[in-house]
Structure formats: C-alpha cells, structure tokens
Give the backbone structure.
Amino acid sequence: MATLQAQHLLLSPCSPLQAPHGGRFRAGLRNPIKVPMPRGLSVRKKMVAAEDQMIRTEGMASVSRDQGAASTSAGVHDEDLLVVTSELYAVMEAAADRAGMHDAVGAQRDNWNTLLLGSVNSITLAASLAAGLSGISAGMPAASPHQVAFKASSVLLYSAATAILLVVNKIQPSQLAEEQRNAARLFRQLEKEIQTTLALGRPAPADVEDAMERVLALDRAYPLPLLGGLMLDKFPKAVEPTVWWPRFRQRRRQQRRRSTGGSARNNGWSEGLERVMAGVLRVLKKNDTAEYVREAKLALQLNTVLAAAGPLLTGLAAIGASLVDVGGANPGGSWPLLLGVVTGSLAVVINTLEHGGQVGMVFEMYRNCAGFYRRLEEEIELNLEEEDVESREDGELLELKVALQLGRSLPELRGLCSHSRSRDEDDIREFAGKLF
C-alpha cells in the first residue's frame, strides 16, 4: 500500500520532475540554466584587462626604443670603423706605391753607376792613348796633322771625363741605389705592418696617424729628387745613423695603450726581463751602434779621397796632354807626355776603385746598419723609462721581437745580458747583433 502511494506521488502533476509530453525535461538538459554574474565584478575584470593591455603596450614601445638606440649607436660606431679602415687602406696603398717607385728608381740609378763607370773609363783610356800617339814624333821640326788631331782629342776627352766625374762623384749613383733599396724594403715592411693591424681588427685613428707619420719620415730619410737641394748630402761633415722612423712614436702608442687599461699578468714584464733589456741596451750602445758609425766614418773618408782624386787626375792629364811637344816649340821634353798618359791611367784605377767598388754604397750601408741598432735602442729605452708597467709594450712580445731582430734565440739573448753584467764597460767584446 505504501509503495503504491509513493509511485502516485512521483507521477502526480505537482512533481517538478514531471515532463508532459516529455519536452520540458529534455529541454532542461539541452539548455542548462545560466547563473547571472554580479555587475560590479564584471566591471572590475574589464578594468584589469585594460590595464594589462596598457602595460604590455608600453613595454613593447620601450623595448623598441632601446633597440633603435642600440642600432643607431652600433651604426655610428661601424661607420667610424669603416672610415678608419678606409684610411688605413689608403696609407697602405701609398706605401706599396712608394715601394714600387723606389724599386724602379733604384734600378735606374744602379744602371747609372754601371754605365757611367764604363763610359768614363773608356773615355779616359781613349784620351790616354791619344796623348801617347800625339807624342810619338815629339821633337821633330814640324808637327803633322795627325799629331795635332791626337793632341786635341786627348785634351778634349780628358776635359769631358773631368766634367762627368765631377757630376758622378757629387751624386754617387751607387749610394743612391742603396738608398732606394733600403727605402723599398722599409716601405714594404710598413705595408705588412698595416696589413697585420687590419687583420687583427678594430683599428684606431691613432694607427692611421702613426702610419702616415712613418710614410713621411721615410720620405725624408730617403728622398727621390736630385735637384732643389732635396738630395741627401753624400759627404756630410758629421756621420749620424740614418733615422727613418718618427720620433716619440712609441710614446704615442703607449698613451693609446694606457687608455685601454692593463692586464692581470703585469703586461708581461718582470724584474728579470727588465735586467735582460737593460743588458741588451748596454751592449747595443757600447759595440753595435758605435762600431757601425766608426766604419761609416772610415768609408766616408775613403770615398772623399777617391772622389777628389779622380777629377784631379783627369784634370792634370788634360793639362799634360795640352803641353805635349808636337812641333819642337815646347822645351818641356817628355814630362808633359808622361803627365798626360800616366795620370790618365791612374784616374782609371781610382774611378774603378770608387765606383766599381761602390764605396758610396758601403758608406750608406754602414749608416743604415747604425740606424737599425739606434732604433732598437730607442724602443728599449722608451719602454724602460716608462714607470707605469701597464703603459709599456707587452714585455714578452718585445723580448721576442728584439731577439728576432738581433738574430738570437731567447736563451742567447738572456746569456748576452749575463755577459754584459759580469764585465766592465770596456771589457764587453761581444756584439748584440748576429745578422750583420
């Protein structure tokens, strides 16, 4: 009975689960009831979303501005680097062009030395032969036309040889050729150093200034012109080593390194390395530089004597040839003939010793060797005088460069320092350089 009542209640029209025609229940399942949200909570959610959108927009704008500023700064820096690199390339091209010019001019002046020596000796020998032929019939009562022609020819040839020798001994073609050879080598060295600077990257404006000053210093040390007083004095009163580098160049490099800061390893310097460099400097000053200056002075003295003797002998030969007796009118006898022939032969010997032996070239070579060692002295002195170790050139690199330029290994370089420290100034016999 109770069960029948429960079923009746479930099926009664007042039950909420009752669905006439089955539609209300199925519709409730298909369309669930939506609970409305309070109005204040919806507005707050919209405000938070708007604020988040504004923050994201401002952040993106800030990042965009930072990226634009960074790209602008990088663009300016890259533009400066491009200008410096272009300038270095221009200086390198000028150095390569100078090397080519000195090569061409040096070959030309070497030809001058060979051709002028052969020509002057030929002229002098021809004049000596003509003077001898003009005196074969000396003392005869009448002069033949052949004798007069030989006499006039010898005087003329001797005079021409004297004039040519005055010019040749003034310009010293062999010395000029040596100057151009050295200049071409140093310009190529500068070109290689600029290439190294470019290969290492990040060149500075100071590198451009340094390279330009080195080009101008080489132009002053090895000029090309022969006229206008620009040619080097071939017979200087005082012999000094050749200087082809700008002074205080190393100091400017040190100033540039000082601005970049030092390294944690004390820039490669130590007390032992300072002693080694001081010992090498002592030997360079005592022996190498002084020895080459002394030899340059001896070569200059010999060249001066030979340069004066050549024209003097041909001039005396011209005077003797003009006094040869071709018609019995000159009571001088055979002395003018001897003077014309013998002094002419001596002039050939003197010219061959001077220009064939290239005494002027030897003098220039000694002077350049002294300049090579003087440059090493200045480089070592500038580093040792700098109290701030971080402002010096890297010590290990400097030691390697000095050893290579002197033709020594690193142990030999340190042994040279021990040799110089264990002896007095006058007892140092060993030379620092082994290359020449």
Notes: Residues 73-224+268-427 form one domain. The chain is about 75% helix and 0% strand. The first helix runs from residue 2 to 10. Residues 64 and 70 are 10 Å apart (CA to CA).
